[in-house]
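so my prof wants the structure for this chain in the tokens format not the other one, which i didnt know existed until like an hour ago. anyway here's the sequence
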Amino acid sequence: MSFLNSALLPGLVLLVGLPLLIHLLNLQFPRLFEFSSVKHIRETIAQRSRIFRWRHLLLLLLRTIFLILLLLAFLKPLLPRFGSAADQQSGRAVLIVIDHSLSMEHKGGGVSSRQRAEAEADKVLGTLGADDTVNIITAGQAAKSSFFELSRNHAEARQFIAALKPGLGRADFTQANTLAARLLAPGKGRPEIYYLSDFQRRNWANVDFTALPPNARMFFVDVAPPRNDNRAILGASINQSQVLAGDTVTLEVEIGNFRDQPLQESLKVVLDARTSFEKEIAVAPWSTAKITLPVPPGGPGLHQCEISLAPDDLPLDDRFFLTIPVMEKEGILIVSDAPDPKRDATLFLQTALNPYDNFAGSLLPEHVTASGVTSAKLAGVKKIFFTRAGRLNEAAAKLIAEFIFHGGGVMWFLDGEHDAANLATLEKAMGAPLPLKLGARRVAKNVGTSAQQIIKGDFKSRYLRLFRGANRQNLALLEFYDLYDAGSTGAGHVLLTYADDTPAMASLNHGLGTMLLMNFSVSEFSSNLARQRIFPAWMQELVKNITSEEPLPSSSLLGEAVSDDVWKNEVEKTPLRKPSGEPQEVKAEALGERVGISFVPDELGFYTMRGGKLLHAYAVNPPPDESDLRPIDRALLPEQLGEKGQQGFFVEGRDDFADLILGKPIFHWFIFGALALLVVELAFQFYLQRAATKQP
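here's what i got, hopefully its the right format
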């Protein structure tokens, strides 16, 4: 215990002797002579009651204690609390760290956690004296301070807090502590750090406090609402890397339900702010679920897709944005020297790639012979299928090797008489080994007893996505009659293997391109592959996934850099605009006729470049880990501070902010004690009077 008015002690301590002085003066009072009968009665009572003999001393004691209690009350006694020190003479150095993450925008009772933090910060500022210094730190994706150093400009600190905009990203409190350590350099007063946050566990689980001074006192102010239920769209993507005109893509949406109640409502998808789709969804309490929805993105060009749920108390994570680029129809070259290209393997491949009348699909297959492989033919395509191919000369092999090296994709069915020689020629042109070494060709004599089946595979490969999970059973339906004796060279990667350990499918990356070798045929006389339902879907999946071009991400997270390269005249004529319509500053780097641009988004939605049409769009979303609002265990934070001797306390309310400066005032307890002694004295006097008047 300490005293705020300790300077009054020398003057007031003399009052403690006042009851003793009165007692001594009473001894000098004139003696009264009473009637003998009355005197006899009183002496008799005094002899019978010991308390009468001690009454003067007891009254002296009660009155002395009464004055002592009053004296202590005037000295304003303080009980140390939250590490307070009443004798501290230097000014306070106060840092207020405000959580500026997305979770702070959750509204409970119509008020967001950020608004509660602003109100609590104002209470802290209200406890500052004229000599106390302060600074405000916002802990967001990056830590920012209101002043470069600690300042006595309390009014400007209030204005900084009032001007805070909603937080949209994560909160990095470790970075905020590093900034706080710089501001609280030695000799800058008694350090106090106030953390105003909802203490969401994703932000607070691994905060590092070691950079802070050992004498720093830390106060944690919880501004979260009593209930912080939430549900959100955590992510969305399409199921293929390349979308062609006429395709219907599958939209995969991840929904999080962080509540005690199940989620049952409608998920809405809007394309280009015109076409909309809806699907009823159900998600169990405290779980996530992936929802699939088929969506036709439309014609060639860049399309904007917005996915939404009905708004809740945290509406910023109830929407998700992504872009879907759609390409024109793509030409596919089929190299085959089959005697009748309108039948068997060539026909099956053409039909699988484009099963529509008049080639209405997105893939346009074209048939050429091995002798027709020229630079002109290869210039117009990015993907080639080989089936029952004739003999390739060295010039054609060199063209194919360069085609792969510069980003082309080759899918080669090893079902021709010349495939062993063709691969040897191609291997020489590439200057690198192929993944398979071919031996003799095996042709089944008896289909019923000589069929081969695939026994194992690398189903994590993007080329085998259709066979993952329960769809693995489709492989058991496939039978292959004709194949090559082959062995793995160690180059590339074997994807499928027959029961006798013969490789059935292998991949190889060469330069920017990819080559797939399939040790089977789509011919109806060599396998039953073409008769299976999965055949056309698998062929189209191979076309879409063998591309070497890395598409831009369909969406980005707020606070992370977004990069792209565009034409120079687009940058000059069409500025990049934020979702709010304001221009976005970009960093540009000349790349010939192209310009590399990058920027860090600070708004949610679509950043766009528009000329006569939409040229470029970049979707920006909040981080998904901000949607689970469950708080960290409050006992963990103070426990983390023992290593360097810092003190940490959870505080709340204006009274706590006042108590943590000097201590908790307890003068009223001394006044209550003094009043209690008065009551005791009155009762004692009353008892004495009754005893004195009682007849023996």
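also thought this was worth mentioning. The longest helix spans residues 667-693.
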